[in-house]
What does this fold into?
Amino acid sequence: MVTSSTPRGGRRPGATSTRAAILAAARAAFFERSYDGATIRGIAAAAAVDPALVLHYYGSKRGLFAAAMDLPFDPGDVVAAALAAPREERGLALARAALTAWEAPGSGEVLIGLMRSAVSDEASAARLREFLTEAVLVPVAASLEGPRAMLVASLAMSHLMGVLFARHIARVGPLADASLAGLVPLLGAALQQYFDAAPEAPA
Amino acid sequence: MVTSSTPRGGRRPGATSTRAAILAAARAAFFERSYDGATIRGIAAAAAVDPALVLHYYGSKRGLFAAAMDLPFDPGDVVAAALAAPREERGLALARAALTAWEAPGSGEVLIGLMRSAVSDEASAARLREFLTEAVLVPVAASLEGPRAMLVASLAMSHLMGVLFARHIARVGPLADASLAGLVPLLGAALQQYFDAAPEAPA
It folds into this structure.
């Protein structure tokens, strides 16, 4: 018997088809109800499994969305890891983590697909907006304090989206050709400036 | 008799249809040959006018492209105006100029259309990349010195594109709702950091 200790484990008989049923139900729910409107409970019911099993496999609604959209990583995990760095290193940590995640095989195509959908129709834009708000904006803003926390978090996220667009979609030469080693310190300093523009939230 | 002293003047008989012919020829050329491959001379020939008249009406290939794409402003003019500010105020000047230009009636829709085309097909992406390189990247990089000039200029431009995407396309709440007065100082500081990351070019 195979036991699973990680969300990506679980190779007992039927696990693969169960996961496929969950992902299919999740895609349908995210498309019909957008991100905010979809629930783990509803998706579990549609896939005829226990909600606890969905959480066991995917950790959270955020993780389930990333898996349903074929993202090889959960942007929420990338952000959480970067925010674990000391405050004065978070810009650099976020730049390095985001740029590295995009270089992973398959990531670029999926992120470009999400961006392409978002510019093509409002429903896709809403889905992406709601997901990014939960996975990126809220955790970044929660690390800060004061009335500008959400705005500086949004500006930092917008910069990451712009780099993704300019480097991987518009393929603007100097950015498309730059190495991670060249990019990370410059982008990190710009992101750090946003972290420094609002007081830190008490631990 | 009406005389014209500005590129947008010229209301003598036939001027309107001449301008329409030039714009039609320009659109065809930009779509067939992309931005870099199109020439004022070739566009003038296709419209059966003198190249000097094209320059009289539109100032430059850059200005002609902006007019042909229905942009209510030429991004190159926005950048040039911002670069005329003292070095330590350029980030703020560029943030204010870009955000203000996007708010102008009709601007947002056209810019979103250009971005939408760029994510949809490679030919549009190439056209946008070539235009932005000439209108934004090269002048910004020319105001700086050293091996990182083009890279920091690209990062600054990518941030502007990201704000455009997050504020007007994905409509991420805090950014979509922010006032110019709230946004300009924060975005300006981030852009200024890029200007400060490379030495200034000698005047």
Q: What stands out?
A: Chain B touches chain A through 46 residues (CB under 8 Å). Chain B has two domains: 15-64, 75-196. Chain B is about 70% helix and 0% strand. Chain B has a mean pLDDT of 89.
